[in-house]
Specification:
4-stranded mixed β-sheet, alpha+beta, 11 strands, 4-stranded antiparallel β-sheet
Length: 454
Amino acid sequence: MDRLTIPLCYILAIPSLRHTARRVEQIPLWAQIGAVFVLLLCSGFFSISETAMMALNRHRLKYLAGKGAFGARTTQGLLARPDQLLGVVLIGNNLLNTIIPVLTTSIALRTFGRDNLVLSIATGIVAFLIIVFAEITPKIVGATYPEKIALPASVVIAPLMRILKPVVWFVNLFSNTILLALHINTKGGRDQRLSTEELRAIVLESGSFMPTKHRSILLNLFDLENISVDDVMIPRRRIESLDFDAPFEDILRQLETCYHNKLIVYQGDIDRVLGVLHVRKTLAALHNQELTRETLRELLTDPYFVPSGTPVFQQLQYFQETRQRTALVVNEYGELEGLVTPEDILEELIGEFTTSIPRSAGTRTGWTESGECIVAGSMPLRELNRWLHITLPTNGPKTLNGLILETLEEIPEGDVCLQIGDVQLEVLQSDDQAVRTVKLFKPHARATAKPSNA
């Protein structure tokens, strides 16, 4: 029975309250009035404690217990036994709410005599006092400040639980029997685990409590569970590689001007990878002795191949175990798809490093004042979204060229305008194989291009 309906029972039980009230008429009037207020406070304490305990954040409580906060471990112990906790709180609350009308009836009899109308009015007044001061107000306060109330209150409730343990056990014996008959498992809901989406929601709602950069890293960390090396790798067309069969003068010139410390060396076709060349060691050998093709071949290290579709987290672990810094991504036919390094994975977490090499022409100018940006069609979508702060879909093609071809379902001939999501695009340059250059228009900015029906 809900406790808010108890005052109605008091109205129906006025004759019995009269009989009980006569027994307390011998108590002084001031003591009875004081006892009513004290009992209202005690009833409010049980109500506020119950609501605060149930509204308390369990993860925050675990943190406070680890920090040794006052009452935190005691509160943990109480919440670990919710049936006993609720038993003590409800028994104490209902017992007090039963005594209060008895004292109020006694006060009414002593003050106004045996008048049924007076007794009805007194019962209504006490019902109002219980609802406002012992139920609604304490519960609102408890739900508003659960941590500040639950921890100190646990120090009082814990000894009461030990004292009333026999009574609580007897009451719970009936309630547990009913739950068992209804096949309700009360232990299954105690272990609260947060899903990835729930953790993401907590991070998004952290607001000013967490620096923007930290929040961005955590959100990117959640995204790593859903991406593979295909999403972070450098595509095949953008790999800086060295042809072993090229004229030796061209090889030396490329070694002196390359941006990377390691180069992929292939013979004839990039799918025929010979190994990975350490540029600094090669240049040192060039100064110490005459560099030949045979010497160059001896400096090569074995290539490290990984299959396409390998999860990013798993690949990061492989990098740690094998102590490799460069992995070549191959498809099911053994063809080279791209190249991935630990830095590529870390960039997904913290953004691009300031030491990144120059990209294709026009890809690092950013938005112009008119809200336009020209990029290469081979640019990866994830990198493009992160750089320009847009939301092009990444669950399909990996590059801007692939996304445009999937949308148009053909290779465009000449200038074509289209809109994907909230981003307007204009194809500036294409050939028989792919889209080479694209102009993007900043969302919500005034664009000069009109999207096509594609």
